[in-house]
Amino acid sequence: MSTLQTTASEPTTESGLVEFGHIIDGREVQSASGDVFTSIDPYTREPWAVFPLGGSAEADLAVAAARRAFDEGPWPRMSATERRTLLHRFADLIELHGEELAMADTRDMGKPITQSLSNDVSRTALNFRFFADHAHGSSAEVLPMGTPHHAYTRFDPAGVVVAIAPWNFPMMLESWKVAPALAWGNTVVLKPAEDSPASATIMARLALEAGIPPGVFNVVHGYGADSVGEALTANADVDRITFTGESSTGKVIARAAASNLIPVSLELGGKGANVVFADADLDNAIAWSIKAIYTNAGQVCLAGSRIYVERPIYDEFLRRFVEAAESMRLGDPKDPATQIGPMASDVHYEKVRGYVETIPESGGEQITGGLDEGWFVRPTVIREPAADSPHQREEIFGPVVTVTPFDTEPEAVALVNDSPYGLNAMVFTEDLSKAHRVSAAVVVGTVWVNCFFVRDLRAPFGGAKQSGVGREGGNFSREFFTEPKAVIMQIERSNTH
Q: Are the beta carbons of 391 and 429 closer than 8 angstroms?
């Protein structure tokens, strides 16, 4: 099993920073300009690694490499069985190097190491295994037309995929994009977030070690606007763009892709609602509600940041929820006992701090939490803010939750839907009919009933309204990462046409 020492043995600068490069056409390279940027450890608030700062030159090189690998190379011409074998070998290496990958994400963005190890590494490997198996086992349609014609469908790889990933679940969300694209025979250029770039380079190294051909999986580092990200989305040789991140950035990417008619899949922001009915199992509801907002210090697009509790149990729920929140341990994310790490960056800490400091203006009451030393924010609870306050309507993306009472089922549904976002919701009730009614009525992409964050990778994933465009997962990923093609054949000759 790889350990932290594996990362420490990487090439380092004179100042002791670990050095990483782009992975382009099977080689690890620096930027032609020589420009670099550093990744800051959010706990120490000091640089720990250095990366090449890419621009349009690196974007064009990576896309050209992916284009050649797609147009001329073996990857899209392999059978699904052959690709499956290599992707499973890749997943094996991810698990073997799990500690190295987990520590890279923890040092990049402050995620507690127990979460990086127990959840993110396993899900990253699972994503590659699942989509390799899914592509291998998928069937196409046969459409009987009767003599003399026969029709069927093909799902051919789309081509060059640009994947732009966020900083909150680096390797896991990178794999969610890269795995189905590769499984269906595409080639990929991945741009990880500049705040969490290390695990992407490590994964690309492991892909080459697994035998995935050069140019099939490329990684370029840099920023978005006026940098490598913008150059990638404007490149006319790209066939698909998949992006996870802020809604405002998604709109910019959609406009860039539209100029070249490139299909996009956008998983954007959220303001997840969590509805707790009076008949809920309160122990279960509180445990999941804590996880839903405070996992990864609230830096989760799916976070249950709006809790609505039926009035008969409101006071008891709030009391017990606050007790659970106050018991969570803040600290060094490299310590396995830590439950809450720091905000991922100085910029993000300042954003969340702004929301915390303006809680009195929301009309609500802060009953626990607040700012701590460094880039830490303690688990924060706001009681009954105004419905139109920024704390109730905007994506804070931190460990800050609002708790509001409601009286009726229709009122609860209306509160959930009173949001520009529609990514997900949770419903806690022991009434099966109510669970079905509310799940049908809320306008979101995913509903969890009496749980949170449980996934079936065959199911559609994505959001409604400002939370995104399109769905991925299972056959939904197949539809996006392929060009479905109809083939109609004449199987019996006729003198008439």
A: no
Query: What percentage of the chain's residues is helix, strand, coil (to nearest 5)?
Result: 40, 25, 35
With cut-offs at 50, 70 and 90, classify the pLDDT of residue 146.
Answer: confident
**412: region left, alpha or beta (phi > 0 left; psi from -120 to 50 alpha):** alpha
> So what CATH class is 4-268+467-483?
alpha beta
Report the DSSP beta bridge partners of residue 41: 46
The answer to whether residues 375 and 45 touch, using CB atoms and an 8 Å cutoff, is yes
Answer whether residue 106 shows pLDDT above 50. Answer: yes
**Neighbour count for residue 43 (Cβ, 10 Å):** 21
Where in the sequence of the chain do the CATH 3.40.605.10 domains occur? 4-268+467-483
CATH number among 3.30.920.30, 1.20.120.550, 3.40.309.10, 3.30.420.140, domain 273-449: 3.40.309.10
80's CB contacts (< 8 A; 6+ apart) are 135, 136, 138, 183
**Beta partners for residue 188, in sequence order:** 161, 217
Average pLDDT score over residue span 474-492: 94
pLDDT at 148: 87
Provide mean pLDDT across the span 100-113.
98
CA pair distance 450, 117, nearest whole angstrom: 25
- 19 strand-pairing partners: 50
Contact 124, 94 (CB under 8 A): yes
| Residue 226 CB partners (closer than 8 Å, separation 6+) | none
- 10 Å Cβ neighbour count for 75? 22
Give per-residue pLDDT as tens, 300-331: 999 999 999 999 999 999 999 999 999 999 99
Alpha carbon distances (Å) from 250 to 39, 253, 481: 24, 5, 18
Distance CA 291, CA 453 (A): 9
CA distance 205 to 333: 25
Residue 6, pLDDT above cutoff 60: no
Question: Is the predicted pLDDT of residue 9 greater than 50, yes or no?
Answer: no
What is the rounded end-to-end Cα distance, in angstroms, of the chain?
Answer: 66
The arithmetic mean of pLDDT across residues 181-192, rounded, is 98
- Segments of the chain assigned to CATH 3.40.309.10: 273-449
CA–CA dist 395, 300 (Å, integer) = 10
340-386 per-position pLDDT tens digit: 999 999 999 999 999 999 999 999 999 999 999 999 999 999 999 99
Axis crossing angle, helix 314-326 with helix 282-294, rounded to the nearest 10: 50
Contact 328, 379 (CB under 8 A): yes
Cα–Cα nearest to 270, from 476, 443, 458: 443
Catalytic residues: 267, 301
CB 423 within 8 A of CB 301: yes
